[in-house]
Amino acid sequence: MRLSTFILSELECILQEWEDFASTIEPLVDANKKELRDHAAAVLKVIAADLDTPQCERESIAKSKGLGPQAADDTAAEIHGADRVSIGFTGEQVMAEYRALRSSVLRLWAGQVEITTAGDIQDMIRFNEAIDQAQTESMARYAQMLREAQNVFLAILGHDVRSPLGAISMGAQVLLQDQTLPSQALKVALRIFNSTKRMDAIVRDLLDFSTSHLGDGIPVDPITVDLLEICHGVVEEAHTFHPDRKIELLVEGDLTGVWDGDRMSQVFANLVSNAIQHGKPGSVVKVSIRGLADEVVYEVKNDGDLIAPARLRTLFDPVKRFAIRPPNERVRAGSQNLGLGLYVVKEIVAAHKGEVSVTSSETDGVIFSVRIPRVIPHRRSND
Ligand SMILES: Nc1ncnc2c1ncn2[C@@H]1O[C@H](COP(=O)(O)OP(=O)(O)O)[C@@H](O)[C@H]1O
Ligand SMILES: [Mg+2]
């Protein structure tokens, strides 16, 4: 008997084994039959149909690598992955279910049929490939849903933190305007105000990080702006926060154009505060902005230690940067910044169809360069 025929004719028996196994997995210990079987029948029917479809060698290799054709609608395996997330399965438990399914189908089949012909072996290979494909689909959906849930969580957290933060900031501003307060109290109020501004920038980066992972990156709203004015504002603010640091600004060419001014300000501020924070203490931060014929080039340069090439590759990706840290450093990193600034810079620049790059050398120090084209190709139609 062909394996596909066997799967369909013995479906109930296979499902019973699946159910018996699933009921041993922690989140399903008290589950009912429907929850236990979930989409197993649909997954098996897809696999049986797949076994009956002729397939060339290339398709077979692609499937074994989990690169089978993408269905327009959600596949049974994808829906299964999503359901398993919602009942609290771990990734390992989803994998274990598939492992059990694979072994029970093959065991039951071998118990009924003597596997002798080349066709039987071909069926087994095809079955394994189809299970691999289904497992990959379930796991991809599982990982995607977890990522999305984490990002929604971060977005809500960031959003909720902003209101009390706004209230603190307002309170500090009221105190700062109170002429009757002694200078010591005013100093404290100023420190509170500055800290809320810093915190607001961190929360904004966090919100941008989480929301940009949920959709199509960071939204930009381009209007006619003067980047020189924005750049001056950022440098002045950095001076206020770090009066002891020297920041040089070099300006050249026409800097008016159609970009998202608030977002560009965020890019400039992130790069300048990085240069101050991560550069050599006491060194001069050199900022330059040049308006060329078809683009604007913004550079921030600081003295600092060489950044290793491997680190340069992950500098703009906080998740990877965090993941490749040894565990003991990750614990220590808890007291440092989240490291979202450069990620947000990269996303905003990408939304403007520009590029950001970094070089690090003994002679020139660390240089971050942003190039933004004057004409952003895909602008909103009503701009
Ligand atoms: N100007 C710079 N000079 C040296 N290292 C830098 C500079 N800017 C960024 N870095 C490195 O890149 C990392 C990521 O920067 P960023 O994304 O802004 O996160 P954060 O500043 O919160 O750590 C920093 O932790 C730092 O190690
Ligand atoms: Mg930073």
UniProtKB/TrEMBL annotation:
Listed GO MF terms: phosphorelay response regulator activity; phosphorelay sensor kinase activity; protein kinase activator activity
Enzyme kind, highest EC tier: transferase
Enzymatic reactions: ATP + protein L-histidine = ADP + protein N-phospho-L-histidine
Keyword Endoplasmic reticulum attributed: no
Keywords, comma-separated and alphabetical: Kinase, Phosphoprotein, Transferase
Domain Histidine kinase: 156-376
BP GO annotations: osmosensory signaling via phosphorelay pathway
Keyword Phosphoprotein among UniProt keywords: yes
EC number annotated for this UniProt entry: 2.7.13.3
InterPro entries named in the record: BphY/WalK/GraS-like, HATPase_C_sf, HATPase_dom, His_kinase_dom, HisK_dim/P_dom, HisK_dim/P_sf, Sig_transdc_His_kin-like_C
Protein's UniProt name: histidine kinase
Organism: Telluria aromaticivorans
